[in-house]
Design brief:
By secondary structure, the chain is mostly helical. It contains 1 helix and 4 strands; from the N terminus they run H-E-E-E-E. The chain is 44% helix and 8% strand. The relative contact order is 0.03.
């Protein structure tokens, strides 16, 4: 009986000790978690402050640019316009602006050798002999004078 009582007392003592250790561990974990949350909040506040500072700097720079852009010299409007590639003496809203760039080396077409005619290697003659027919002039003849001004499909003859 005494041995049983001693064992039970020892068991209770061990359980109390285990509870104390668990409570200490739980307090330690809660403290670590609180510390972690504080650090996260601090980081978030710092990030928000950095973003706010960047915003303020950007707004300040934009306002400075706006003020400075009012004082910058504007390019002068071109006083001449180009119509059909020819310079006009006045600027017109419908005319093209002066060309900003032109190629100093004129374009040259690439030389292509003429295609070689395919020769009939079989040696057979064609079924129909080709006959040359006299050239028949067409009844509709179109004459284009050099002094015509043509724009698209509209052509007017200047006489």
């Amino acid at each position: 009986m005494e041995a049983k009582a001693a064992k039970e007392l020892e068991k209770e003592h061990l359980q109390e000790k285990a509870k104390e250790k668990y409570q200490e561990w739980l307090k330690k974990k809660n403290a670590e978690e609180c510390e972690k949350k504080k650090k996260e909040k601090e980081k978030e506040k710092q990030r928000q402050a950095e973003l706010q500072e960047k915003k303020e700097i950007a707004e300040r720079k934009f306002k400075e640019w706006l003020e400075n852009s009012k004082n910058k010299p504007r390019p002068a409007a071109k006083s001449y316009g180009y119509v059909n590639g020819k310079l006009t003496g006045f600027y017109n809203g419908n005319s093209y602006p002066e060309p900003a760039f032109y190629n100093p080396i004129p374009w040259k077409p690439v030389h292509m050798p003429p295609p070689k005619e395919a020769k009939d290697l079989s040696g057979k003659k064609t079924k129909r002999p080709m006959t040359s027919q006299p050239h028949r002039p067409s009844s509709l003849i179109i004459h284009k004078a050099r002094n015509n001004l043509c724009l698209g499909t509209l052509c007017t003859i200047q006489r």
